[in-house]
Write a structure and sequence with these properties.
Helix content is 45%, strand content 13%. The longest helix is centred in the middle third of the chain and has 30 residues. A five-stranded mixed β-sheet has the order 2-4-5-7-6, covered by helices on one side. It has 526 residues and is of the alpha+beta class. It starts with 7 loop residues before the first helix and ends in a 14-residue tail after the last strand. The C terminus is likely disordered. The protein is flat, with a radius of gyration of 31 Å.
């Protein structure tokens, strides 16, 4: 059903505000599960859902109102300590938030889709019953506790949970009946339940970037400086036409050239900075992913994030999400052991995954490190041979680093059985392929029994790449500066010969010397 909204500006404002609130909710809910006594955090989560519900009601998005209203009621009971925070409640709330994101994406697409909201609401209703106070509820039976699909059952106006009344008292009769059908949950042991998988749909608009006002001011100042230099150029040309002394013109033109070079360089930097956004945009979705995977795998995992304020070009940020998801999943599934295995090895039962980002020159370095079992090179080599990815001769010539790099080959996997998470041999191949598309590189640091670390080195931006121009005979080549370690001036006395090879004396070390003739990759005689 197409959306009929007369005030497009109001609708855009609602979508922007709701998107910002929901993007933060996943991280906040995972944090609340770890710190259930944090009332300020719980109140912030409640206010976010309440804001989305109120705006949705004003604009007439009924499906969104129904889901957010029930979610708000459950959160309100948590605020009033009528319920206690536990993984089962968080599973249901996170599923409701995922549904809200889906409904919001429908609105962004300009058309309301028919969505099954009754199943999710049915899972929320038992937490609104009188018998749910202070208990851990099982996952509600979708058959026994499903809501009436008659749309008129929801036509009653929503009651705000901020009035201080118990939301369950004001429920319609059919909702109360659904709650009663769920039985008395206080005396039922919670069954084993898999967490609701996080939706992969992105709410953020990839066509827009939020820009700090100070950066706009700096950009305006640089444009003003450029206009002044343009006026000086116009005046200089006018003076030259009127017979300005050529010597004086040359001096003034030289000064003008230097000023223009400085101003345009600064202007370029300001424009690039406007495209830069914190890598937090990608990092903030990983607490939810780690939480769900840890529960599914039966592992205890703590995710530590550092450097989320590090800035990166928007085009790069949009592309690194999938590789990072693969690496995080790989760390949990392959790297970290189960609590029993860790305890037997003398490690803490809870494993740790560290995700960090830092700047190094013109690159950003992203690290994914775990304190798990590490990568066994012998097992990697054996699996590569079994799958026919390498020969015995090739393997014999490889060092440890080359053997570890075999995990990036298409079809490679150390899993004996294929699961939903791994075993298909495509994850690490996708990681390296995507990183190379960004002109980046990936490195592995490994210590068997102690853990592994994957290091991504990426350019800050793909919009402009600084390069070193090199002339070989009549051809000029451009080498990205990120690939240049240093440039050295030398003379013939700097060369030494060892057998058939020539080496260049580079101070404290000797570098193998190749002569390029016709092509940078061609090797010929000097």
């Amino acid at each position: 059903m197409p959306i009929d909204c007369e005030d497009q500006e109001l609708l855009d404002g609602f979508l922007t505000e709701s998107t910002e609130l929901l993007e933060k909710l996943d991280d906040d809910l995972v944090t609340l599960e770890k710190s259930p006594s944090d009332t300020d955090l719980l109140n912030r989560i409640f206010r976010s859902i309440h804001t989305v519900k109120g705006a949705s009601s004003f604009l007439g998005f009924d499906l969104l109102v129904k889901v957010t209203h029930k979610t708000e009621d459950v959160l309100n009971r948590l605020r009033k300590t009528e319920l206690s925070v536990n993984p089962e409640i968080m599973d249901v709330i996170l599923e409701a938030v995922d549904l809200v994101k889906v409904l919001l994406n429908d609105i962004k697409g300009g058309e309301i889709q028919e969505r099954d909201i009754d199943t999710t609401i049915a899972k929320l209703l038992p937490y609104l019953s009188e018998t749910a106070a202070g208990s851990i509820l099982p996952s509600p039976d979708p058959v026994a506790s499903s809501c009436d699909t008659n749309p008129t059952a929801w036509d009653e106006p929503p009651v705000s949970a901020t009035d201080g009344d118990d939301p369950s008292i004001n429920q319609p009769a059919k909702e109360q009946a659904a709650v009663e059908q769920a039985g008395n949950p206080a005396v039922i042991a919670p069954p084993s339940q898999k967490p609701v998988p996080a939706k992969t749909e992105e709410l953020a608009d990839s066509a827009t970037v939020r820009v700090d006002v100070k950066r706009l001011d700096d950009l305006m100042n640089q444009v003003g400086e450029l206009v002044l230099e343009r006026n000086r150029m116009v005046q200089l040309y006018s003076d030259f036409q009127e017979g300005l002394d050529p010597t004086g013109f040359s001096d003034e033109f030289g000064k003008l050239t230097k000023r223009l070079n400085f101003v345009t360089s600064e202007l370029q930097m300001q424009v690039l900075k406007m495209r830069m956004i914190p890598v937090e945009k990608v990092f903030k979705k990983f607490p939810r992913i780690v939480r769900n995977l840890a529960r599914e795998l039966g592992k205890e995992v703590e995710l530590l994030i550092f450097g989320e304020e590090t800035e990166l070009d928007r085009s790069v940020v949009d592309e690194i999400g999938d590789p990072l998801i693969h690496l995080i999943r790989n760390a949990l599934d392959h790297g970290l052991e189960t609590p029993e295995e860790r305890t037997a090895a003398g490690k803490p039962a809870k494993g740790t995954v560290v995700l960090s980002a830092t700047h190094e020159g013109n690159q950003i370095v992203i690290s994914i490190k775990d304190n798990g079992r590490g990568i066994n090179p012998e097992k990697v080599a054996r699996k590569a041979l079994e799958k026919g990815l390498v020969t015995d001769e090739q393997l014999a010539a490889m060092g440890t680093r080359e053997i570890l790099d075999l995990i990036f080959l298409p079809g490679f996997s150390t899993k004996e059985q294929t699961t939903d998470l791994s075993g298909r041999g495509v994850g690490m191949d996708v990681v390296r392929t995507n990183i190379r598309k960004l002109n980046g590189i990936i490195e592995i640091k490994n210590e068997v029994g102690q853990g592994s670390e994957f290091i991504l080195r990426l350019p800050l931006t793909l919009a402009i790449i600084q390069s070193l121009l090199v002339q070989v005979e009549s051809e000029i080549y451009s080498i990205p500066l990120s690939a240049v370690i240093e440039t050295i001036k030398f003379n013939r006395a700097s060369f030494t010969r060892l057998g058939a090879r020539k080496f260049l004396n580079c101070g404290t070390r000797c570098c193998h010397w190749f002569v390029c003739t016709g092509s940078l990759v061609a090797r010929g005689n000097p």
